[in-house]
Amino acid sequence: MMDCNDSHALLSGEHLIYAITIPLSTSIILANLVIILGIAWNRQLHNTTNYFFLSLLVADLCTGVALPFIPLMGLNRELSFSSCLVAHVFPNFLFLAFLFNLVMVHYERYVCIVDPLHYNNLWMHRSFPLALLVVWAPPLLYASLPAFGWNNWTGADWSGCCASSQNLTSLSNCSATKTTCCSYRRVFHNAFIYLEVYGLVLPAILTIAGMTGHVLWITRGQLKDICRLHRSVERGSQASDREQRLNLRYTRCLVAVSLTFLACWVPYLIYMHVCIAFLISDTKWSSTTHIVLSCTGIGSMAVVPLVLGLANRQYTEPACKLLQKLRDRWGRRMQGSEEVAV
Question: What is the DSSP letter of 302?
Answer without folding.
Answer: T
